[in-house]
Amino acid sequence: MADTTSKSYFWKGFRDGTPFIFVAIPFGTLFGVFATEAGLNIVQTMAFTSTVFAGAAQFAALQLLQDQTPTAIILVSALAVNLRMAMYSASLTPYLGAAPMWQRACAAYLTVDQSYACSIVQFEKEPRMTVPQRMAYFVGSVTPITPLWIFATYLGAVLGTRIPESWALDFALPITFLAMIGPMMRTLPHVVAALVAIVVSLLTAGIPYNLGLLIAGCAGMMAGAQAELFAERRKATS
Amino acid sequence: MTPVDPVTIWSIIIGLAIGSYSLRFVFIGLVGDRPMPPWLLRHLRYTAVAILPALIAPLVVWPTATEGQPDIPRMAAAAVALSVGVITKNVLAAIFCGAATLYGLLYLLG
Q1: Is A7 on the interface with B (CB under 8 A)?
Q2: Reported ipTM
Q3: Chain A residue with the nearest C-alpha to that of B90
Q4: Of A56, A155, A215, B18, which has the most beta carbons under 10 Å away?
Q5: Does A52 touch chain B (CB under 8 A)?
């Protein structure tokens, strides 16, 4: 990664990833605040945010923790939120799979929504990039946000202890999630998946241990996959 | 602020750290260049978009802060946050509008 073209791809990635600091800073701060509200101390909050390094799954785990959900269900649900990381990993493999193992191990840790979104666009746009150039771009795209995400969490955790109960923060988390869901509604199958998941989750809300969440999540996934197949078949026959 | 059992918290943190890393590593690290079955990719595409709404829907309809009573400010805030997110594709704008709706209505109705 030391040659000049890789270096310039690193900086290109850095520039393309920079706008995401406006997402990473407020989300990191929110996570710090919520974690403190949920009863985590600073060491736990910082260990959480720097090892898991995935906003939505972290928020989901916190919410379930406050609902007294058993640990196993919290783990399965939060990892289900993170299953998309496996999809990113799969989708990046044809471009980065030939890199040395230590680089791929680092790239795995840095696979987040932002680095994936930047990189896949860039790799498809310039198919002639070499593997080291791609790796340099990928690492560059996540360099501006990683330290700021961790620092913002720390800031939120420190501030969180000083926020009074009357601020109705109980509902800040649902609002944050709903706001994240909006931009995910890219295609009709995405909407179908979300609607089926909502209906099933309301019907199964009475089931103990929040198991309804897993049932609803599976139902939504299957509905989305079936809707996609149906749409493809209609396109093929028409 | 309620204190939580440290064993529970650390199990969640460590479990999620290992689990999340494994999910990210599995394909790029282990699968390498081999192709994957399309049905698997098709389901993976819809996991986040299914599990997040399923997590939120009961909290919107039966909020914990009102002991499960449906609540107009919270329902309205949820509707605004979701609509602004769908229309603008801007997460921060959606959070801001949702929060403004919640606090505005809590102030007016409270």
Answers
A1: no
A2: 0.83
A3: A183
A4: A56
A5: yes
